[in-house]
Design brief:
Elements: H1 2-22, E1 26-27, E2 30-31, E3 40-49, E4 52-54, E5 60-115, E6 122-129
Parallel strand pairs: 3-5
Antiparallel strand pairs: 1-2, 3-4, 5-6
Length: about 130
């Protein structure tokens, strides 16, 4: 029974990952803003101040978790935690003092929250777009 449950869980994860990969370029049927050329993607990013961290550089997309003092990535899917967070295209949850993104599908929690491509681009404490 445990093997069957594990098999179903892995299959569901694979289907969800495939669906997320297929939708990475669209938010609510609207194309995402083209970010600068990406160097690739990583599931984990640990930064002091971008580009000083793992992985090294500005051009990495993150699909997972990013923790740092100042985070600056072109495309992000997942949880981003930092003092200042900046992205071009964001899907997930941003936690920080200052959160900025051009296009978002998710929630920002912090003192300054900016979603540039939104009807209300700035809200303190919490901001979101779905």
């Amino acid at each position: 029974m445990k093997k069957l449950a594990l098999t179903f869980a892995l299959a569901a994860f694979a289907v969800a990952a495939t669906a997320a990969e297929a939708n990475i370029t669209a938010v609510k049927s609207t194309p995402l803003r083209a970010a600068e050329q990406s160097e690739g993607w990583t599931p984990l990013s640990l930064n002091l101040v971008t580009p000083v961290g793992l992985p090294w550089g500005f051009g990495w997309d993150v699909r997972g978790l990013q923790i740092g003092l100042w985070n600056d990535v072109p495309n992000f899917d997942g949880l981003q935690i930092g003092i200042a967070n900046k992205t071009e295209n964001f899907r997930g949850l941003q936690l920080g003092v200052i959160n900025y993104t051009y296009k978002m599908y998710g929630v920002q929690i912090g003192l300054v929250n900016v979603i540039e491509d939104n009807d209300v681009p700035f809200l303190p404490v919490i901001n979101g777009y779905f």
